[in-house]
Design goal:
single chain; alpha/beta; Rossmann fold; 5-stranded parallel sheet; two-stranded antiparallel ribbon; 8 helices; globular; binds zinc ion
Length: 238
């Protein structure tokens, strides 16, 4: 009973999930969004979600007709578990054994499971998430194998036929900027620059050509480098 014309996007208000939202709006007749409040240190993300939803319907008339409901679910248990730089007031650093302390164990597993439960209730067949293996900071829950295994697990556990889509899985940040430009042109790229939030430090005071941010944290570094490469070599036809 899941509608194959409908998609649910895991939507944080950042560049990646906003590009995934545009990707879904191009493909599906009904597109809902789900976000998660896990007591992240910088709640500006949750404010950006609403700003992006208001702005994105102005990019294309078809997108206005397709954008459906939004829900924000409470995943405060991630804060209760704690111990990461995204939920606690500690500096970002790389542990000696690989993973940075911005890794929130189980986060994307919980996100996809909660999103699938929502989609089940809403009769939605397609799940879309902006996880990416190419630029990844070593997060094992962003890997393609993890997502494919989750799709199998969710379908077994809910006796459903969800399809998990990861449009950014093999793109670097330059290609993500280019995908956004291809989907929604200059209006969408401007929306990404001005309305989305990526900075780990929660900085919304300084607007750079690539968007708001501190300019120093790993998330800002990736976003800036990708934008500089995108501007230097825009996709043909744009
Ligand atoms: Zn930053």
């Amino acid at each position: 009973m899941l509608d194959p014309r409908a998609a649910l996007v895991v939507f944080s208000g950042g560049q990646d999930s906003t590009t995934c939202l545009a990707w879904a709006l191009e493909r599906y007749e009904r597109v809902a969004t789900v976000g998660f409040d896990y007591r992240q240190r910088h709640r500006v993300e949750l404010d950006c979600r609403q700003a992006v939803r208001r702005a994105i319907v102005g990019v294309k008339p078809a997108w206005r007709a397709r954008l459906g409901d939004d829900v924000v679910l409470d995943l405060g248990l991630l804060k209760a578990i704690g111990g990461t730089a995204l939920t606690d007031a500690v500096a970002i650093h790389h542990a000696q054994a690989g993973l940075p302390n911005t890794f929130v164990p189980g986060r994307n597993l919980l996100f996809l499971t909660a999103a699938a439960a929502c989609a089940y209730r809403q009769g939605i067949a397609h799940l879309v998430t902006g996880v990416c293996e190419t630029d990844f900071s070593g997060y094992p829950d962003c890997r393609d194998d993890t997502m494919k295994a989750l799709q199998v697990t969710l379908n077994l556990g809910m006796d459903a036929r969800f399809v998990v889509h990861t449009p950014l899985m093999w793109l670097d940040k330059q290609a993500t900027w280019a995908l956004g430009q291809a989907l929604g042109g200059d209006a969408f790229t401007r929306l990404v620059v001005e309305q989305t939030h990526t900075c780990y430090e929660g900085d919304r005071a300084t607007l750079h050509p690539w968007g708001y941010g501190c300019g120093r944290c790993p998330a800002c570094g990736l976003r800036r480098a990708g934008h500089e490469a995108f501007v230097a070599a825009p996709p043909t036809g744009s």
